[in-house]
Amino acid sequence: MNWALSKEQYYTYEDWLAIDDGRRYELINGILYMMASPSDIHQEISFEISRQIGNFLVGKPCRIYPAPFDVRLHKDGDTVFQPDILVVCDHSKISKNGCNGAPELIIEVLSPSTSRYDRFTKFYEYLRAGVPEYWIVDPNDKTVSAYRLIDKKYTADIYSDTDMAPVQVLPGCEIELSLVFREENNI
Questions:
Q1: How far apart (Å, rounded) are the C-alpha atoms in residues 28 and 31?
Q2: What stretches in the chain show pLDDT beneath 50?
Q3: Domain count of the chain?
Q4: Cis omega (within 30 of 0) on the bond before 83?
Q5: Could you tell me the pTM of the whole model?
Q6: What CATH number is given to the structural domain containing 86?
Q7: N or C terminus: fewer CB in 10 A for the chain?
Q8: pLDDT at 110
Q9: 3-state secondary structure string across 52-95
Q10: Residue 110: which domain range?
Q11: Cβ distance 109 to 46 under 8 Å?
Q12: Residue 20 in domain
């Protein structure tokens, strides 16, 4: 769950960097949101997708970063996200503070408390920043909505738990969704 700490106080990126209380936060247009720990199912799904992409990327120039890893989409903005998974191919975007600019791929695994946030707030911020590919993984429906940026708009392909989902920004990479949504992940 994400909770806005205060909608009256504006936090800058520098304020956000100075926070050192052991908690995880996202910063959206100057509003600080505290993040709860993900569930076991969320983590198992995230790990399996990361494993498959990571195995594909061995010996290739792109890198995968699972959460927590900070993404500052706009250099001059006061917004920082911590996507569940991201892939970066342009190493100049990586710094000690995370990723600066749009990664090639962002994947969010839905939780009941973050579903609306991931489907709307993050969707539009990722679109505005020009993230080429954004996946929303729904553990309840066992689906992946893969949004690809075409002419400054996202087009969607929906994949079910029996599909192989291609990662368009990584030609040749396909995610075997039967492994992502296997029954032991849904205990």
A1: 5
A2: 1, 187
A3: 1
A4: no
A5: 0.93
A6: 3.90.1570.10
A7: C
A8: 95
A9: HHHHHHCCCCCEEEECCCCEECCCCCCCEECCCEEEECCHHHEE
A10: 38-186
A11: yes
A12: no
